[in-house]
Fold this sequence. Notes:
alpha/beta, Arc Repressor Mutant, subunit A, Rossmann fold, 2 domains
Amino acid sequence: MLTLIEHTSDHTHISPHHAGVLKSRWKSELENPMVKKILVVDDEERLVSLVKAYLEQEGYRVATARDGREALIVARAEKPDLIILDIMMPEMDGYEFMRLHHREENTPIILLTAKVDNDDKVVGLELGADDYVTKPFRPRELLARVRAVLRRAGETEPTAETLRYADITLDRESHSVKVGESFVNLTPSEFDLLAVLMSTPGRVFSRLDLLDHIQGVAYGGYERTIDVHIKNLRSKIEPDPRSPRYIETIYGVGYRFTRE
């Protein structure tokens, strides 16, 4: 069988044949650059076909890959707006893909996981995933999460708004955050969480409240997702994440952005 991926020391190399396949496969997408493109990465062909069919029915363009190595190649060539990523795959798993991909791009990622251990999901979130869906899943739930993550990616905020507190500046229009004079790179989920908290200093938000704000839906059992995003957010904006100055934990309730 013809191999499209050649292995090198930097993990991936695109062969001339593979380049031709990618060019012909996605040439039509240049005709409508406004359509969102989603990369689905999973070694289960039946699942990929099902997810691809549902997404295309909703008007998205879909690229696919069978493992992390191929996904790196496709992601570099196609620049997807969102990646739906399996964790357990041959050749290169989802965790390693995220480590390598996030060196180059900050594409939003939804994890697909058959694992039931919460620690495995936490690892994915700590590596920069925005959300996760546990297999087996309902297609409508996945579609709702796709819409929510794309919305959080920040292309279409209805009004320009700048939030400031101490040395933190959040600009909705440019979807950027500065701490002092330095820009910090936040995932869409982290940005949306910070915007919600900064918009009402002193208000305590429960985990389900925050899930509802950033996803548009709040599924019970996903509350720990918020804890991981808050941990990552603190590591990027707090002078000392172990003793937070801005984002306070209200034990037994949730989180709030401190008042001046």
